[in-house]
Design goal:
The structure is a homodimer of 352-residue chains. By secondary structure, chain A is of the alpha/beta class. Chain A is built from eleven helices and 13 strands. Chain A is globular.
Chain lengths: 352, 352
């Protein structure tokens, strides 16, 4: 570690969901979409002219910004695109927060925010979730520079209403409010419709979940032009071409294929609601998830035990060994066949 | 700018080569490869199973690291891969340098280093090139935490010998030495063969030039395992999946297609040497470029004038309005046809 920076020596990186290669698993641990992306987008990739590859991708990401602005009915200058929503969040920290700035988020939420807080030397202010894992909205009304609302929250899956989000914004007009909507398309309402009303609102979404493109690394932010401009300054001071040409073109096509998007996200919501009932019959209880995952615990068996037994039987789910949630499992919604297989394994091999 | 960070307010982003869309240009301004990537790599992209897209890319980038380690005859743990060499350099700043650390590089070199120095709050120490644009090797022997050697240098194209690089390393064993080899495959010698001898050496390369994949955003670093580990810590604290699945798979295939790589880079070197002579006949003189570009000035006409006239006539080259080099043009090497067309335009429309 002779040549390491203090940051490299001290930071604890994000722990991503395991990707074991020892056998073929039913993979319900990283909230991926069980369906392939829009066939139109796949076709675009397969038919790209080979001569496009030698050229740098468009650093302004014009084509995909155009598509996003069309679907969300905003100006192109109100859209920023990056290499996954993780990158967009990392850019937001650098664009809007200085060393020591207080950023407020819940104790139980996306576990990357605390990493960013350390990475960018901001101060983490924890506003704990209520006993039932709902958000303590009034708890955000305290001194700080920024608030991160994950809607629906992860790993709980619980959604805020648009009115609840607006109340947080209105009570904190001097703070930057980031609404991380990675899972919004599975039953929650987007805050994009508020961006013209509030200049302190930045909405972040991803292609990794509802658009089945986790492989391509596309995230985006929608907000007023002034916020978007700051994100561009950070990107162009770091890596102007973070999005590759295939991501730009296939992403634009997937965004415009609203019909396929609606069909697949509805299928996932329907599977989720059905499987939740099945699990409840088996003694599980959990949150009212509006995401592409369930967050549940069993009334007699330990979460960690079920996690390990499922893994032994070829089903990967996510278990967090953290206070308050260390008895819960986060189960991504797969295809009906995958979920039926999981239920069968639970019934026949674990809860028997 | 109410919500902007001090960084966003103060930093001057990197200026990338223009990508005008007003008409079709002969594009000799961003050092792209004129040939498409390995046909085997293109085939991989076209035949990818649609079901791979919904899954996150491999955060360990195993497949492409394996290919790189094979071709460069190093351990897989000595390889780091990122989203373009710009990202790898940005990660290096964060992994190895702290606020205020002195980083030494020439006055004329890749113009992103000064942006990174500001972005990551390090102190820039300029070691000016000699009068003839060669490096002042002894000038690196001064107090500092790091040295960046670009080999060949850009935009001059001048290469250092392996002995010269080793002398800098030996004289600065307490500094981290980054050798940026973006253009090394066009006639210079790589410092990769020194990594087992020196624990302070990090070699950075890219797929954007000699491997014709500027579109896919793949850069890599080779160095001892301890340095590589620090880069992973930074990546996993920022965006664990910076490389997408297509980049990983197509990149691995392109890396292993050594035959195609050799054929195309040799074609470019041969075109470069031929065109340099043609330009000399027209009154240009320039450096001994070992890159996929020429760096030349004319004996009577201004660089900026020629740049503008070429653009009017549909040929884009790069002009830097900077001290010492504001009479030079950086001309990327295109196909023989493109370069012949440029020579024809110079002869018939500009130098007439």
């Amino acid at each position: 570690m002779k040549f390491w920076s203090n940051k490299a020596k001290s930071i604890e990186p994000y722990t991503y969901g395991e990707q074991p290669k020892d056998k073929k698993y039913i993979k319900l641990n990283t909230n991926e979409n069980p369906y392939p992306p829009s066939p139109k987008a796949v076709k675009i990739i397969r038919e790209l002219d080979e001569n496009i590859y030698k050229l740098y991708s468009d650093p302004t990401c014009s084509e995909i910004k155009e598509a996003i602005s069309k679907v969300y009915n905003v100006d192109k200058e109100q859209v920023f695109v990056g290499n996954g929503s993780d990158e967009v969040i990392a850019f937001s920290y650098q664009a809007f927060f200085d060393k020591g700035d207080k950023i407020i988020y819940p104790d139980i939420t996306y576990s990357f925010y605390p990493v960013y807080s350390k990475m960018y030397d901001t101060t983490e202010i924890i506003n704990p979730l209520n006993e039932d894992f709902t958000m303590n909205l009034k708890g955000f009304n305290q001194e700080g520079k920024g608030i991160i609302l994950t809607n629906p929250n992860a790993p709980t899956g619980i959604a805020l209403t648009l009115e609840e989000i607006e109340s947080v914004i209105q009570n904190n007009l001097d703070k930057l409010i980031i609404v991380d909507e990675a899972y919004v398309d599975f039953g929650a309402e987007s805050a994009v419709k508020l961006i013209n009303k509030y200049n302190n609102l930045l909405v972040i979404q991803t292609f990794s979940k509802s658009r089945s493109f986790a492989s391509l690394r596309i995230g985006f932010a929608i907000g007023n032009k002034d916020l978007i401009k700051a994100l561009h300054i950070i990107k162009d001071s770091y890596n102007p071409y973070t999005l590759d040409t295939i991501g730009i073109k296939a992403g634009a096509t997937a965004m415009l294929d609203v019909e396929y998007f609606d069909k697949t996200r509805k299928a996932i919501m329907s599977t989720r609601d059905r499987i939740k009932k099945e699990l409840e019959k088996l003694g599980f209880e959990g949150t009212n998830s509006k995401s592409n995952f369930l967050f549940m615990k069993h009334n007699s068996l330990d979460g960690e035990y079920i996690f390990k037994k499922l893994k032994e039987n070829g089903v990967l789910v996510r278990y967090f060994n953290k206070p308050r949630i260390n008895n819960y499992l986060r189960i991504s919604i797969g295809t009906d066949e995958e979920m039926n297989e999981m239920i069968k394994i639970l019934k026949e091999k674990i809860l028997k």
